[in-house]
Amino acid sequence: MRNVSKYWSAAAKEAKPYVPGDQPAGAIIKLNTNENPYPPSPKVLAALREAIGPQLRLYPSPTADGVRAAAAELYGLSPEEVFVGNGSDEVLAFAFQAFFHQDRPIRFPDITYSFYPVYAQLYQIPVNQVPVEADFSINPEAYFDSPGGVIFPNPNAPTGLLLSLGEIEATVARNQEAAVIIDEAYIAFGGESAAPLVRKYPNLLVIQTLSKAYALAGMRIGLAFGNPELIEGLNRIKGSFNSYTMDRLALIAAEAALKDVDYCREICRKIRHTRNEAMDRLRELGFTGTDSKANFLFVTHAQIPAERIYTQLKERGIFVRYFPAPRIANYLRITIGTPAEMERLIAALSTIVESYTA
């Protein structure tokens, strides 16, 4: 392969890109990227079928008015308090540029979504990574009075641990001079959204995705809720990057999904039930884990190294996520699949545990 590094900018040379989970093809059980095991709402699929036609020759709406109105209605906000982007990762990237400064360090946990340090390095934003507690929980007081702002997921990733709405509000209230960004990718699986708080706190931005709870990972739809001044900041960055970040089909899918929230709630209920049952079964096999409120489990085995379990599952066509990182290198993150997929996972783990402890 030809070496083209001499043409790269300093930013490209120094970048340490985020590495997504494997996207294998074929007859496998994919429990490594926190996708929803259930299909999108039938109303979404019907809307998409109807939308495929000659109108695809036209540009999509740059303002995503229909999606913003549907999202605003869901949380009792106005469309001016909603931003729509091409997946929550894009919204996060815009937020880092719009609200964090190159001369003020921000705070986020040392164990968290691994895109945060990528963005911080790319946009040259200094960071104070705050160690999570021994049980992996976030101590809200450690984020009070941050000079440059705060960002963390709730529930956190990859631990799945949740802060209460009161703890979120306390963090926002103690950072009135800086932006606080709460990344709610997994909030529908066990928590209460902080979105309604944006009217009380002009420094709060809440980011969500339709990839997880709404089963639309393939459409790339992200949302942000905030004071209109914050939303205008996001729009200024977006308008300096690309006026049309959302395609026509994604906008149609998003609006239909947000209008069928009952379907979303039902599949999330199923996932929570399967999550709790799976954790009980894993405990019987000698696993322990966090009290996850997300659509995944974060577990370890007292006797068997996590990397070995990961490798042996992969050999059996079952993909989970392994992070060879400090403090969590002996843990696995397991996405909640269908009941049938989780049965196959448990059967495979039973065999692995049996062969190791025999």
Integer count of domains:
2
Helix count equals 11
Q: Give the end-to-end Cα distance, rounded to a whole number of Å.
A: 47 Å
- Class inferred from helices and paired strands: alpha/beta
Query: Topology as H/E string?
Result: HEHHEHEHEEHEEEHHHEEHEEEH
What is the overall silhouette?
Answer: globular
User: What's the story with the biggest beta sheet?
Assistant: 5 strands, mixed
Briefly, what CATH class of the largest domain? Answer: Alpha Beta
CATH superfamily label of the largest domain? Type I PLP-dependent aspartate aminotransferase-like (Major domain)
Tags for this model:
single chain, 358 residues, alpha/beta, Aspartate Aminotransferase, domain 1, Aspartate Aminotransferase, domain 2, 2 domains, four-stranded antiparallel beta sheet, 14% strand, globular
Describe this structure in words.
The chain is 37% helix and 14% strand. The chain has 358 residues and is α/β, with parallel strands linked by helices. It has 2 domains: 10-39 and 262-357, Aspartate Aminotransferase, domain 1 (Alpha-Beta Complex); 42-260, Aspartate Aminotransferase, domain 2. The strands form 4 sheets. The chain has a 5-stranded mixed beta sheet with strand order 2-8-7-6-5, with helices on both faces. A 4-stranded antiparallel beta sheet has the order 9-10-13-12, covered by helices on one side. A two-stranded parallel sheet has the order 1-11. Helix 5 (115-122) links the parallel strand 3 (106-109) and strand 4. The longest helix has 24 residues, at 261-284. It is globular and about 60 Å long. The N and C termini lie far apart (47 Å). The mean pLDDT is 95.
